[in-house]
Amino acid sequence: MADSKAKSGILLDIRNLRIEATVFPPGEAPKNIVLVHDVSLTLEKGKVLGLIGESGAGKSTIGLSSMGYGRGGVRITGGEVILNGRDILKGGKEGFRKLRGREVCYVAQSAAAAFNPAHRLMDQVVEATLLHGTATRAEAEKRAVALFKKLSLPNPETIGERFPHQVSGGQLQRVMTAMALCSEPDLIVFDEPTTALDVTTQIDVLAAIKDAIRDTHVAALYITHDLAVVAQVSDEIMVLRHGRLVEWGGTRQIIKEPRQEYTNALVSVHEIEHQEQKPGTTPFLSVKNVTAAYGRSHIKVLKNVSVDIYPGQTLAVVGESGSGKSTLARAITGLLPPEEGTVTFDGRPLANKLADRPKEDLRQLQMIYQMADVAMNPRQTVGTIIGRPLEFYFGIRGRERDRRVADLLDKIEMGKGFIDRYPAELSGGQKQRVCIARSLAAKPKLIICDEVTSALDPLVAHGILELLLELQKEESVAYLFITHDLATVKSIADSIAVMYRGEVVRYGAKSKVLTPPFDAYTDLLLSSVPEMEIGWLEKAIKGRRMASAGN
Amino acid sequence: MSSPIVKLVAQRVALGIVLLLAVSVLIFAGTQILPGDVAQAILGQSATPESLANLREQLGLNQPAYVRYFQWLGGVLTGDLGTAMSSGQDIATSIKGRLWNTLFLAFWAAIVAVPLAIILGLIAVRYRNGWVDKLISGLALASTSFPEFFIGYVLVYFFAVKWQIFPGISTVYDGMPFGERMQAIALPATALTLVVLAHMMRMTRAAILNVMQSAYVETAELKGLSAFNVIRKHAFPNAIAPIINVVMLNLAYLIVGVVVVEVIFVYPGMGQYLVDHVTKRDVPVVQAVGLIFAAVYISLNIIADIAAIIANPRLRHPK
């Protein structure tokens, strides 16, 4: 029977997969939780199946089960994983080692972390091939160079001599794809291969991966939380939630005619209709000709940047990583004193250095960060975290403080019950809400939001954006909203500054900035945002005017 | 291309030299603060004020301390460590043989201890939290926790007294055949190995375990490498810097800290030489030995620093 399966073209057949892990919740006895409930899937040779879902959906866990691998204490406790006609779960450790890197290869989310910093790229690329003895070193290296060419890496002949730190993130991701392809596997597991990249780089990597899959006829499990991305590369899509199958179908069916409500929620566009406010007459905060650099470096991270922020409005700062967005926030808050230029607040210049600013100035500018969980003291309760600015800036203590904290919790749509909870007991979205409440507690005029929704699942991020807009109406607080995500910008901004390599290349009201004619960089940025449209990728690549800097 | 490395290495070496000078000042000052001076020590009970003054004049002790310091330093730099008061012998000549003996013992102890510690560390990581790991860690910790004189005497009791395999007194002399010499140092070398083993083993284990969390270790596992090869090829090269550091610290200990072991086995090395002359209050010898120990300690630490710099591919191959 196994033989007939293999002949019929089915490469991977996962049946009733059940995966469990032991968790150690604080203050409780260790307990078993089920991560994947009874999931079955089949994948034909040369086809691409997209696994999508939010974090905790079990996508990566299912993907890795095809290699018999469980991260941390994760165990496969039930079902069968039939690869090339045999149940690999019966093969034991030795069996897993033989198939890993030969029949199934893996491409990780962050190639920068997944390459060993101590070895040259070529040694790592050919390692699995040599280990499994499928080619001699010379053959494997020849194959690798051919793959580097196919993935349009620069200097394909010599890039293998480099060390991982000498190559950019987008290039590393492609080298990792070459590494997976080098041992000519039957299946590659792509685990969010473009998530850590800038949009402008993502599009190139995505195109390279797609071409490589097509030309080598390898089958793939493509794991991502981004439906628009997966729609470009996969033949079929499987939607997962909380470790259970939600819907499985052809790509066109899933994105055009979803049958399940949850799929529909994922597919529908989450743009918030946000009416742009006309800028007032006088900005309360002006950044004028600011130039800044880290240390005594000659490389200026900010070059002559000027922007204005109006009361109760949102200025969105967009750009790819390294464009100086966060540095601008650091210059405004005084964490990085500018070398030249000034920041004026309410008509008077702010002290350059944080240490020289009076408490009142500190109160007026608050920050919310990308990583909510590291922005909070894990040993303080939510009540202490939110109450701290009340004590520090206003000297409010005791019952009055508790009342205010309860009010703030109410504002962020979390109940009083959370006062005594610790950050570890909250979900990602709840943590970010607590951070928002903490910044609001200071009653600031401006909150700087640094990629606050980037680490969140789309539906959760949507909720946070709505909350921020709601709060802006109630408290008339202004936002400086730093993001690389243009959909977010459209939802929240009144004016936009596009940054590229430390300079503001386009700046003005939202409608003006997002209306053609565009400058080359804004055009690249806008055209690189994946759209949930089959064939978008090819169209976008064709229509580009400039290459992305990340290459 | 290697310019950042050259710069960093030059910085470390320069710092080491400055540090060594500072230590020489401290050693000199320390011996000056001690009550009494060389003249008093030489004359002892028979000292009269006149004879003391004469001897001080003769030895140049009347000159201000900084002048004497520079004279001493100048001597040291030209290889002249002065004369031992107790024996009247040239210190440099008598130290040379002693230093050679100490280095010989340290070398063989290190040859055994360093690879053994690293291999045991690798094995402990491979079977982490299992009984092999616990056994290795337990034995290594036990051997370190026993004072070295205890280990020394236990070794003497079994190997020298009961079974008579190795000599209990490690006498060596010039022109001794290599085989006999090795037999003589077998017990002190074993004692030293047992003392330094655990520290290096535990550090190797901890440094590698730290690296085992990395994504690239997962990558290696997903290529199908065996557990031991993952550790050897992918974890160990990235854990090398902290391991080198602790190895160098222990090498320094093997040279500088052997005093007790040398005394137990009556081994004619630096440590015994130092102890002998401390009891005789022979200040020039104590100064010379102190300075040599400091130099050894500082240079080994510089070597550790430089090795850690070179082990870092980011510094070795800049963008």
Structure, explained:
The complex is a heterodimer of chains A (551) and B (319). Chain A has 21 helices and 20 strands. The two termini of chain A are 48 Å apart. In chain A, the strands form four sheets. In chain A, strands 6-7-8-3-9-10 form a six-stranded mixed β-sheet, with helices on both faces. The longest helix of chain A has 18 residues, at 199-216. Chain A is α/β, with parallel strands linked by helices. In chain A, α5 packs parallel to α7 (169-182), α6 crosses α7 and α8 crosses α21. Chain B is an all-alpha fold and 319 residues long. Chain B has a domain at 95-281: MetI-like fold (Orthogonal Bundle). Chain B has helices at 3-33, 38-43, 49-59, 65-77, 91-126, 131-145, 148-162, 178-212, 215-222, 227-256, 259-264, 270-279, 283-311, 313-316. In chain B, α1 packs antiparallel against α13 (283-311) and α10 (227-256) runs antiparallel to α13 (283-311). The mean pLDDT of chain B is 87. The interface between A and B is medium-sized, with 30 and 19 residues.
CATH architecture of the domain at 95-281 in chain B: Orthogonal Bundle
- Count of beta strands of chain B: 0
How many structural domains can be distinguished in the coordinates of chain A? 2
**Subunit organisation of the chains:** heterodimer
**Over the alpha carbons, how many angstroms does the gyration radius of chain A reach?**
25 Å
CATH topology value of the largest domain in chain A: Rossmann fold
